[in-house]
Amino acid sequence: MNGTVTEKKAFTTVDLVYMAIGAALIAICSWISIPSAVPFTLQTFAVFCVIELLGGKRGLVSVLVYILMGAVGLPVFAGFKGGIGSLLGPTGGYIIGFIFIALVCMAADRLFGDKLIVRIIAMLAGLVICYAFGTAWFMFVYIKGNGAISLMTALGWCVFPFILPDILKLALATAISAKVRNRI
Predict the structure, then answer these.
(1) What CATH number does the domain containing 67 carry?
(2) Residue 3 Cα distances to 6, 8, 10, 32, angstroms
(3) Residues 16, 65: Cα–Cα separation, whole Å
């Protein structure tokens, strides 16, 4: 190679460590279940934190590593579940939907820059896409096994109870990440 062309590594060792920690954080938070009428985990909180702390590209890799760990059978999903069956099951679309949150955040960062309001709007937009993909997948799987279901019923089971908690998780993740972000 001549002197004008340099080879660039995709990620540094420090990046790889941060991404591994991000995947581990998502796994740990998926095991934490907060009981309520509709129990929920801190999985989306961790996804928001990881993306907010590491940025879209490294956050995306963390989410992908988390999903791949679960796909090969490690018990990293909610309820200590793992395996491809978890992803192909009725709620697997919401796990895959985490990829969309990271992709939207990565695209927003590239298009509009690294500003707090851009990151928040991007995470909200990604969450809406996650809900849409997850609900479509839920309906597909549910209809195959149980018969017809209306969109409103699916939303009532899978989205509406989680909107407020997910917005609170996003706000908390943003606040915590603001304190930690400058130290990474």
Answers:
(1) 1.10.1760.20
(2) 7, 14, 20, 52
(3) 11
| Residue range 86-138, pLDDT digits in tens | 999 999 999 999 999 999 999 999 999 999 999 999 999 999 999 999 999 99
Entry pTM: 0.91
- Considering its fold, how many domains does the chain have in total? 1
What tens digit of pLDDT does each residue of 4-62 get? 555 566 899 999 999 999 999 999 999 999 887 667 899 999 999 999 999 999 999 99
Domain membership flag for residue 4: no
CA–CA gap between residue 27 and residue 20 (Å, rounded): 11
Q: Specify the residue for token string 């706000």.
A: 171
What distance in Å separates the CA atoms of residue 127 and residue 123, rounded to the nearest whole number? 6
8 A C-beta contact, residue 49 and residue 173: yes
Query: In which domain, by residue range, is 103 found?
Result: 13-181
- Domain membership flag for residue 98: yes
Burial class (CB in 10 A: 0-12, 13-18, 19+), 117: exposed
> Does the residue 5 lie in any domain?
no
Domain assignment present for residue 94? The answer is yes
